[in-house]
Specification:
Elements: E1 10-16, H1 19-31, E2 57-62, H2 66-87
């Protein structure tokens, strides 16, 4: 019997500043077992970066996993800031 689709809503867990940051965060979430829809682009001519004036790249997760995803993202961003400060 096929698995029933989740009735859980998809919500924005984070808005990344660039497509590269979004790919890294999605991979981080996926490695923690949190699915993030939209990680594969179907655009045949994707932009390298988000154009100026846009709101960034939204990272989606199921609502039931949103709190955990936000915690993982916050820890990742905090560790990145700490590494940048140490390099200076």
């Amino acid at each position: 019997m096929p698995e029933q689709p989740s009735q859980d809503r998809v919500v924005v867990a984070h808005t990344a500043g660039s497509s590269t940051e979004a790919m890294v965060i999605r991979a981080l979430l996926e490695s923690s077992g949190i699915s993030s829809p939209g990680s594969a682009s179907s655009d045949p001519f994707p932009l390298n970066e988000v154009p100026e004036g846009t709101h960034g790249v939204e990272i989606y997760v199921l609502e039931s996993r949103a709190e955990e995803a936000r915690r993982i993202i916050a820890e990742y961003l905090q560790s990145g800031a700490s590494l940048e400060e140490a390099e200076e």
